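Q: What would this chain look like folded?
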Amino acid sequence: RVSGPAAADPRRRLLAIAAAGLAIFALVANPVLGMSRDWDVLTFTFTLLSIAAAVQLVAAPVPPHALRWIAGAMAITGFVHLGLWVSLNRTPQVSRLRFHRIAANERLFGARWNSELWRYLGSAHAQSGELALARDAYVRAIQRNPAETMTYRLLAEVEYTAGAWKARAEKRPVGPCFEAALADYYETVLPLAPRKSLAYLGAAYAGVQIPGAEALILEAFRMAVETDPGDLEARAAWGDVLRNKGRLDEAEAEYRYAIEKQESQVRALMGLVLLSGARGAPRDEITARTRELREKYPWSTCVQHMMNLLWQPRGLNEPRDFMGFLCFK
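A: My prediction, written as C-alpha cells:
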C-alpha cells in the first residue's frame, strides 16, 4: 500500500499499479481461461513490473556487489524458466501429449472450454498429417459441445484429406474415395449432432474448395435443408448454392423464406444483395445496400457471414474482395 510522502513518488505509484494487477489477477483468475491464454493475460502486468524494476535499479543507489547478486539471480531465474519451457515443448509430439493430458482432464473445465481444447489439439494433429489422431480429437470436441458448427467442418476437412490421400495411394478417382470418407463422417457425427443440418453444413463447407467434390457439396447442402427445414442458416446457404448455379428465382425464394422467419438473418439479406448483382444491378447500388447492412447489424455478424460467403465456390460474379472490404473497414 502506498501512502504519505511515498505516494508522490512516480516509481512507487508504478510499482503499486503493477502489484495491484497481480493481486487482481490472483483474486479473479479462472483456470478455464488459462493454458493457451495465460501469457496473454499476464503480459500487461509483468511489463509494468519489469519497467518498475528497471527504474528502481537505475535510480536507487545500489552497491555494485548488490547489482551483481541481482543480475545473477535474474539470469539464473531466466535460464531455469527457459529450461522448463524448452523441456515441456522440446518437440511437437511432447507438446501435443501435454495438451492431450490437459484436455483429457474433463473435471477441470466446462464442456465448452474442454471442447475448444480438443479442437485446438485436432488442428495441431491435422497440420502434422496425423489424421487418425485429428479425427479422434475432433470427435471428442463434438461430444463435449455438439452445437459448435466449426468442429464439424474441421472434421469433414480431415475426412476429405483422408479420401484424397487414399485416392492418390491407390491411383483411383477421388470421387468414390470422398464418398467413402463422408460416409464414415456421417456415421460418426449424425448421432451426435443436435440438428442434423450441422453435420451436413460442415461437410458442405469443408468441400467447397476441393476439386472433385462438387456433387457431394450440393447433396450436403440439400440434405441440410431437407433434414432441418427450420435451420435458417442452412436455407440461406442453400440459397447461395442455387444463386451460384444460376437458379436465381429459387435462390430468392430461399432467402425470402429465411428473412420472413427472422428479419435479422444477415446471410439471407446479403444473399439478396448479391442476387441483385447477379441480375445486373449497378455496383453503386450493391455498395449502398451493403453499407446499410453493415450499419444496421454488428460488424462482427457482418464479418462472420462474409466468411461464410467466402467459403462458396470460386467463379462467382459478386465482387468478393470488395464486399469483404466493406465489412472489415
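The first helix runs from residue 10 to 28.
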